[in-house]
Every structure is written in C-alpha cells, then in structure tokens.
Amino acid sequence: MLYELRDVKRFYNNRCALSVDRLAIEGGKIYGLVGPNGSGKTTLLRILAFLDEPSEGQIIYKGSSVTSQNASLFRQEVTMLLQNARLLTRKVKDNVAYGLKLRRYDSKTVKTRVVEALEMVGLQPRDFLNRAWHELSGGEAQRVALAARLALRPDVLLLDEPTANVDKVSEALINQAVIKAKKEWKTTIITVSHDLGWLYSTADEILSLWSGRIVHQGPENIIPGPWEKLENGLYCKRLRDGQKIYVSGAPSQSGVVSISPSEILLAEHPERTSARNLLYCFIREMAYCNGSQIRVTLSIGEINLVALITDEAARELKLSPGMNIYVVFKATAAKWL
Amino acid sequence: MEYIFSGIAEAFVLLLKGDEEVYSAVSATLRASTAAIIISLVIGLPLGFLLGYFDFPGRRFFRSVFDALLALPTVLVGLWVYAFISNRGPLGGMNLLFTLKGVIVGEVVLALPIVIALSAQSIEELDLSVRDTLLTLGASGKRLLFDILWEARYGMLMAAITAYGRVISEVGAATMLGGNIKWRTRTITTAMAFETNKGQFAMGIALGMILLLIAFIVNSTLSYAKRRRQTR
Lengths: 337, 232
Fold this sequence. Notes:
A: alpha+beta; six-stranded mixed sheet; 9 helices; 21 strands; globular; B: mainly alpha; 11 helices; 0% strand
C-alpha cells in the first residue's frame, strides 16, 4: 500500500476541514477526487503531498509513519501541481531543471529530462527552453509547471485542478501528459479536476468528498439542499429551470443526498413510469469507462448528474453529447448523507 | 540670470578639469554611502527576511516600528548619533565624531529601517505559493530559505536602492556628524550647502550635476527592479 490514512483530521481556526477515518491508496493508479468547493479536496491533496501536517491522526507512506522530521525526505518522491501553479522567476529550462538539480542529477541527465518533460506537455524545447517566466501565456506557464514535476518522474503526482485556468489545447495536452506519466513510470496520480468526463473516464478510483469527509469511493452523484418537505413524505429540490427532484426518507443534518450512477436510467421519450423523477436534461459528455460501460454526464438546471449505461444501450438510444434526453430514477434511489 | 548661466559654464569647467575639491566631495560621498549601504544590507536583509517570513509574537509591533522609522528625520538621526559618539557619549572613546566613519554610522541608522521594512514587505508579498512551489519541487532547509530570498530579489534590490537614494542625498546627519571638513568629511550635499552659502554657485552646480547623475542611475535601477517585480 502506498498511503494509509488513519483517523486523519485537519482543522483551520477550529473548523474541521478534513476528517478521514480510513483511506488506503494503492500505487500505480489514478485517483480522482470529486466534491463541491470546500469539501476538503485541496486539504487532502496538501496532506498527501506532505505540505501540511494533519492536526490529528496518522499518515503512513510506503510503510513508514510520516512525521515533520521525515516529510522532506518523502517530498523527494511526491510532488504536487498547485491550483494556481506559479513559476520561479527564471528561464523555462531553469524552472524545469530546478527539482532535478536539487536531487543532484548529472548535467547530461538534467538536460535530457528537461527536454523530455517539455515535449511531454507539448512545448517545443527549441522555442521554450530559453524563454523567461514572464514570456509565457497562462496555459504555457501551467504546462511548464507540470513539466517541472514530470521531469522528476515522481512516484506520486498530485494535481489540484491542473486544467482549471487553461485553454482547451493546453487542457488536452496536460491530460495526455498525466496519463503518459502513469503508463511510463507507474506514477500514482491523485487529481482534482472540474473536467468530470475526463476524470471519470481516466481514473481507476473516484473518491467523493463532502464537508471534509470521504462519503463514497466510486463515482457518485451528490445533490445538496435546500429541500422542501411535501405532504406525501417526500422531499423536493427545485432546480433553476423549474424542474423538481424528489427524494424519500428522513433528511440528514447535512441535507445532502447521493445517487448511484447505476440507479439513473435514460429515456428518449417521456413515458408513464413508476419512478418519481422524470427530468429533461442535456448530455454534456460521454466517455468509456471499465471497458463496455459508458459514463454519461448530464446537465439539469444547475446540477450535473452522471449515469452509467452499457455500450449497447447508448447505441440503441443513439446518444451523443449535445442532445437532450430524459433521466429517470426513483425517489428511493437517493441516500441521505 | 546671468550668474546662473555663468555658474553652469564654470561647473562644466570644474568637472572637465577634474577639480580636486569637487572630486574629493564625490569620493567621500561614495565611500560613506557605499559602506553604509553594505552594512545596512548585511544587517537589514536577514532581519527583513525574519520579519517578513516568520510569524512570532510582537511581529506586528516590530513591523509598525520599522515602517514608522522610514520617515525618520535626518537631523534627528544626526542628533541621536551625535549624542552617542561625542566625547560625553557612551561611544565617545571610539573617536567617531567628525570623521567619515561617524557619517557612516549616521547613514546606517537612516538606511537600516528602509532595508528592513522594504525587504520584509517584499517577502510578505511573495505569498505562500512560492514556498509551496519550492517545497513541492523538493527544496527544504537552508536551500528553501535561500531560494525564497532569491525569488524576492527584485524586491530586495528595490529596498537597497531606495535606501541608497536616501543616504546619498541626505545632508543633516552628514553635516552634524562629519562636520563638513574639507578634504575629509565634506560630502556632495554638505559641500553644496556650504558653497552656495558662500556664493560659489559653480562648485554647487558642479556637485549638483554629479548628484543628479547618481540619482538618475539610482532611479533607473529602481524602475528596472520595479518592472521585473511586477512581471513576477
């Protein structure tokens, strides 16, 4: 096991930002962290990168308990691309070579790795090696920052929204480079990304976070409140487009429900159905996952839902991104968190 | 107006002929201000780093003190240092009064708060992401601190140049502590004040042109540092 977290808590000003009872992370996999803002994704990444110490609990990395004394040693194998990654005020080649020089690689290896890393992120070394940090666009700067991490061939690469502020071309190149790092060096990738389609299609494991807790391992739809109580014992959430989501059961304190993607069905036409929820939505993304399954990301009002369907079902319904379709699920499919 | 134009013409003659009195004042100014700025940087940069980087009890108080000292009147510095280095003062035995070393002490007192306050500010403005970036790339210990300092280098350069601009143009402390002694402690500014009082405009204007040239170089370097800092 690469990481083990036991009863880890992190407080900021007496507010618990993260509370993980148990978490095991295996090497060589891609883990995706999903959850709304403030759910503890970045806090978890920073703890896994040994940038922050947990307020309570224990982290075990490759069988050794992590302490403030040995954290810098483990940081030689683990690196993180911060959300607003900044470059050092140096040339591109010095930025990418920085970590390699710290690790005392010989100059030939440094040169080779710098060129290789820049090529991995789609930057021509000939054009970029001698550019200063301030001569790059936002997307180029982000790719140089990623190249500086890839050059290290790290055991663990933690990414905090690596494509949040970049153009589409940079986004695609960053995503490709990350997958290549996993394939070529068996780097474990732990990433937060707004690009759910990419995340769900690439990640081996998905961890859903809510209010600092890991609420589910695997893809899950998380729907926050407010919920209106109805006379028939159901609760309803009004979406901005006027549609309503109905759920049953007694609400939890958090007022948040989760629905498994496998509980969500897609229908071409509105039909009579025993399911309480029939919602008209728009297909944002489709991506293969786990072989024959297709993950469909759907937009309904202000929320996104993910449904898992078979390849065959997608073909029968002639699904494609951009088309409108109906979503069907029972009120009992939702679980209060 | 004629005496002004003839003063300017004479000033060029003094400069081009290499007038010893003019260049003695320039030499004294450069020696005193350079020594003062080196001492201030050696003491001030580490203190500025500590004040800007580490969080400790009383940090805000010290920051306010050094910020307030940025506007320290030079005559007040002259008075205080005079009290310490005069024969009756605690450092009287060191015979610093009316020497260039005495002027240097005064200029260090003037420059030090500027170096400390501005370097602390440049470290604070770097924000935590620089530290995090360096940590994620594997830096630690002394290397981490050194590289944070390096990332703040344009801010540090600004602190040094601002302090240099202040000491090279000050007149109060240099007059009180150096005594404006010809060939020894007479600096550009004290000589300008003295020669103008005597009606020797040519000498004053010649020294003024050199001071203007130095100020131009200092300000150009300051602008460069500011530009580089903004592109960070």
